[in-house]
Specification:
The chain is an alpha+beta fold and about 500 residues long. The chain has 17 helices and 13 strands. The radius of gyration is 22 Å and the shape is globular.
Length: about 500
């Protein structure tokens, strides 16, 4: 089929009742197989393992948002995302030990460097950032709103023309009444496509849990760490500059982490915060709950697997393609992933891992590695110590997370100490956060000086100077110097782009 027919056909297939019935039957069958494998111990592994996904966007010589040519992806071995301006680099899983952590850092750096070299050949550059704010030449509204209708199917011009994306876009549009809206301080956006979601980019550390019986404890600990970790890493306080009028009050009013409302608003069809398909995850009681929740989640844009092998899937996951598709749209800020091949096992091995999704892309590779190591070290340290943090009520963890989305490092934190005491004191929270991250790293075999040096780029942010506060301060300074709010945002962003991606960690900016 040609491109148009393929896209139109994908939407028609995803809405066909027979396709949906077959898809759901296959998901149920595959889910039951996974449950049996969890109960039998097949998904138990020998050790912890770690990995990373890192998203970014691309700019031209004028530092405006730019489209990535197809050839770049082949040369740089990086992945495509929803927007044609997006790229993703991954670090394959390694064992969670001293050598594996060092290998993660080397792989992330090598992959980012390869993407930069391939983009440089076409006069473009990658940006490690959580939200683009300098629009393309045609402006944000024109860029995000450009669509065609092909036989009744909406095709967004600046979305990757992959059948899965187009089918998802059309289903979510139908559920949203044909318009995706977002209302945040200083801006009200409305577009005939979900492409607004491509404003946001993130990093996703992964942690493989060796004992599936222990998986719920680690998952529930992860939920309760999200707010405090996000408070040290927030990096998305502004939409594109041309979304705003000249109202300086926006600087104080805008959330520190607009990525969260942007993604939730793009998918959730005006559902209240904390509800809808994209939301804060619930606690687990047993490992099989991971599977139950994916199977029970509302199906969006189902696709039936064909006979072609997926080159990116492990042998185990290649037999779970409908389940895996549904898991991919089971949007929670932490979620369980089934089927990744454990490091150093037989080719048909499988695992169960935590995908930690709430974190924005960080300004440099060293900041990114520090964030990854903080997350995996913290979860391992808390889990091995059987820390009391799981006694924090789920509602308190959820409220803390959304408070941090709004207020960044100034948010009210929520924590339970190792002694079982409830606290909101940032110093106490951060003391334990880094102490238990060090414990997890020590258990993994990292020398104390190596752990200290790796965590330092994030630990030095404890004073509240995080990327989002830096951005707000730079915009406020420019406005005080006489710039309009849109001009101040662009001025800040050019400064950020000149610094991001280099060897100087954010704490030294």
């Amino acid at each position: 089929m040609d491109g148009d027919s393929s896209l139109v056909g994908a939407v028609a297939e995803s809405t066909d009742p027979e396709t949906r019935a077959t898809f759901e039957r296959r998901v149920r069958e595959q889910a039951e197989r996974i449950r049996a494998d969890i109960r039998s111990g097949r998904l138990d592994t020998d050790e912890f393992a770690v990995g990373m996904e890192l998203e970014g966007y691309v700019v031209d010589d004028a530092r405006r948002l730019a489209r990535v040519p197809e050839a770049v992806f082949d040369r740089a071995d990086c992945g495509k995302e929803l927007g044609v301006h997006n790229f993703e680099v991954n670090s394959a899983a390694t064992t969670f030990d001293a050598a594996g952590i060092a290998d993660q850092a080397d792989r992330i750096r090598a992959n980012v460097d390869a993407a930069a070299a391939a983009l440089d050949d076409v006069d473009l550059a990658p940006v490690l950032d959580a939200m683009w704010t300098i629009p393309p030449a045609e402006g944000t509204d024109a860029y995000l709103g450009a669509i065609e209708e092909r036989e009744g199917v909406v095709v967004a011009e600046n979305m990757r023309h992959h059948p899965r994306y187009v089918a998802l876009d059309n289903e979510i549009l139908e559920r949203s009444g044909g318009t995706i809206t977002l209302d945040v301080p200083g801006a009200s956006l409305a577009y005939p496509t979900i492409l607004m979601e491509s404003l946001a980019t993130s990093i996703q550390p992964h942690l493989q849990i060796p004992d599936t019986d222990a998986f719920p404890r680690y998952f529930n600990l992860a939920i309760r760490t999200m707010g405090p970790v996000l408070s040290l890493t927030s990096n998305a306080p502004f939409l594109p500059a041309d979304c705003y009028d000249d109202d300086p009050a926006v600087i104080d009013a805008t959330p520190h982490e607009l990525r969260i409302p942007v993604f939730e608003g793009s998918i959730n069809a005006d559902a209240p915060r904390g509800e809808g398909k994209v939301r804060f995850p619930e606690d687990l009681e047993r490992a099989t709950d991971v599977v139950d929740r994916v199977a029970a989640d509302e199906t969006y844009a189902p696709v039936l697997a064909d006979d072609d092998a997926d080159p990116d899937a492990s042998p185990y996951r290649s037999t779970l393609r409908e389940y895996d598709h549904k898991r991919g749209v089971h949007w929670r800020w932490v979620r369980g992933v089934v089927g990744g091949q454990p490091v150093g096992t037989e080719p048909d091995g499988a695992s169960l891992r935590i995908e930690y999704r709430p974190l924005p892309t960080q300004p440099t590779v060293r900041d990114t590695v520090a964030t990854q190591v903080l997350v995996v070290g913290l979860l391992r340290g808390l889990g091995v110590a059987n820390h009391s943090l799981t006694e924090l009520p789920w509602t308190a963890a959820r409220d803390c997370f959304y408070d941090v989305v709004d207020d960044g490092p100034d948010a009210d934190l929520a924590w339970v100490t190792a002694d079982g005491d409830r606290t909101a004191d940032p110093e106490t929270v951060y003391d334990e956060l880094f102490a238990y991250a060090r414990r997890g790293l020590r258990d993994a075999g990292l020398a104390p000086d190596v752990a200290d040096a790796t965590l330092a780029p994030i630990e030095r942010r404890r004073d509240g100077t995080v990327p989002s506060t830096w951005k707000k301060a730079r915009v406020r300074e420019a406005v005080d110097d006489g710039a309009t709010l849109p001009d101040a945002i662009e001025r800040m962003q050019r400064d950020y782009i000149e610094r991001a991606g280099g060897e100087t960690v954010f704490a030294d900016w």
